[in-house]
């Protein structure tokens, strides 16, 4: 039970915490010739509030796995 539920969720949370800065970093784009000498980039922003509904008698991972991804 520990390996399937808690260890998997913990590993996913650690991975997400380690990579979140990289995922949210601004990414610069190459522009077309007519748009030069401008600059272009993609900047990620959070959407807002998230509601995750899970059953109390289901495995731990089925509720907290999506929560880690949403955060």
From TrEMBL:
GO CC annotation, single: cytoplasm
Keywords of the record: Oxidoreductase
A GO term for molecular function: aldehyde dehydrogenase (NAD+) activity
Any GO BP: aldehyde metabolic process
Protein name, as recorded: Aldehyde dehydrogenase family protein
Origin species: Streptococcus pneumoniae
Lineage start: Bacteria, Bacillati, Bacillota, Bacilli, Lactobacillales
């Amino acid at each position: 039970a520990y390996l399937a539920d808690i260890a998997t969720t913990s590993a996913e949370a650690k991975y997400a915490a380690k990579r979140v800065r990289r995922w949210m970093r601004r990414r610069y784009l190459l522009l077309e010739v007519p748009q030069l000498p401008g600059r272009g980039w993609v900047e990620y922003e959070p959407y807002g509030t998230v509601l995750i509904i899970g059953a109390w008698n289901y495995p731990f991972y089925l509720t907290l796995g999506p929560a880690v991804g949403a955060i």
